[in-house]
Specification:
It contains eight helices and no strands. It has 188 residues and is mostly helical. The N and C termini lie far apart (64 Å).
Length: 188
Amino acid sequence: MRHNFSTYTDEKLVFLLRSDKREESEIAFTEVYNRYSSKVHAYCLRILNNNEQAEDIFQEVFIRFFQKIKSNYPDTNVPGYLIKIARNLCLNYKRDKVNTISIQENDVYFEPGKSFENSELLDLITTALELLDFEYKEAFVMREYDGLSYNEIAEVTNTTVTNAKSRVFRAKQKIKEILQPYLKDMAS
């Protein structure tokens, strides 16, 4: 009898992932991947601003998740746990590499049919994100791109909810400051 795993809660999927039944475990893993892969990939891409590195980290996140889920999965917040793994891997990568700010054509995504100004604005926002301190950039990306709550951001970053809110607010302020001269030019 085939089950519709898409209707299962994350907790039920975690239970099945820990199961000795290989087929159930693999199907449960596929469901977790289908639910959260786009969010994890977007997080890695926004934090690293490099398609190749984001793809490598993204794949490593799910490998580590699968390895850790069997032994020491600490909580029931699957998306938070995946983002926490992604965060740690991104931090390790950034720590090991000397990053330079660069703008690459592949860093900006926009829908066909959108105006040039919108694609230019996305390019400017991507650049502004790269200029932020990591803690502000990370909080902003988690909130605005990944849709995490302030509680989830606080949990992932090991800080308070107030601090998470403050980081997002400051990131928005800094982005506005950085973009202000460009927005005036675009308006005229």
